[in-house]
Write a structure and sequence with these properties.
The chain is of the alpha+beta class. The chain contains four helices and eleven strands. Strands 1-2-3-4-11-10 form a six-stranded antiparallel beta sheet, with helices on both faces. The longest helix has 38 residues.
């Protein structure tokens, strides 16, 4: 047979290993599981946010984050180590004097659902919030700011013997009863030289810090443990234990 008429020889096709197909299948299943996990997480977070808003009587729906991965194993075990909620513009206080907190960041620990997911038990909870000086000023009726050293300060003016005297009063913040902002260790300063200020006027300067301010109404029955005056406002730290939420 001449070279011109000799049949062409094709290279043998390499057979694909069955392990390659198995690996592709495993990867596809893993991707599908991750997608299902993330979708389920988003749905659960939105449902929790809606229920928390209604049950805790919040002004708006909070942001909810169920921490930990994967989410579906937490569902199967009915054990959620940490659920984080953040809310803006939370209204607290008594009926005659309310204030809005700039933000609330709460964490619920060791959460377990009950009654066919109609409620939950929470082992412990802790949260922080911030009361701005603009809100504190509005509630007290006088401009309040940070005095430094963990103290707040207010300025005002009074008439003394026909002269206007401007003075300041500063105070340390504290907590009473788990939901009240108190003021203590009040100090009064009158910078004008040569002015003798009677005690009655000193008392008038300090009277702005004479009353307590209710912060009642934090969600999840959080009780205030500490109030700290900072440059940004009064920082609130609160905790709770053994909660049953419906």
């Amino acid at each position: 047979m001449s070279p011109e008429t000799a049949p062409s020889v094709r290279p043998a096709r390499r057979r694909r290993s069955p392990w390659v197909g198995l690996l592709i299948l495993v990867l596809v299943l893993a991707v599908l599981l991750v997608v299902a996990d993330r979708v389920g997480l988003l749905v659960a977070e939105q449902q929790i946010a809606s229920k928390v808003r209604s049950s805790q009587d919040l002004d708006r729906k909070p942001s909810v984050t169920i921490e930990g991965f994967p989410f579906l194993t937490q569902v199967l075990a009915n054990d959620y180590p940490t659920v984080r909620l953040t809310a803006q513009g939370l209204t607290v206080g008594s009926n005659d004097r309310q204030v809005r907190l700039a933000d609330l960041d709460a964490r619920l620990h060791d959460v377990k659902t009950i009654d066919n997911y109609s409620g939950a038990r929470v082992e412990t909870a802790d949260g922080t919030a911030m009361l701005s000086y603009s809100e504190l000023s509005r509630a007290l009726g006088v401009t309040v700011g940070y005095a430094g050293g963990g103290r707040v300060q207010a300025s005002s003016s009074v008439e003394v013997l026909g002269k206007t005297v401007t003075g300041t009063a500063s105070a340390a913040v504290g907590v009473a009863g788990g939901d009240e902002l108190t003021f203590g260790s009040v100090r009064v300063g009158v910078p004008q030289a040569g002015v003798s200020v009677p005690q009655q006027v000193i008392d008038q300067f300090s009277s702005v810090f004479a009353n307590k301010l209710s912060l009642r109404g934090l969600p999840f029955h959080l009780q205030i443990q500490q109030l700290t005056a900072t440059a940004d406002g009064v920082r609130i730290a609160a905790t709770a234990r053994g909660l049953t939420l419906s």
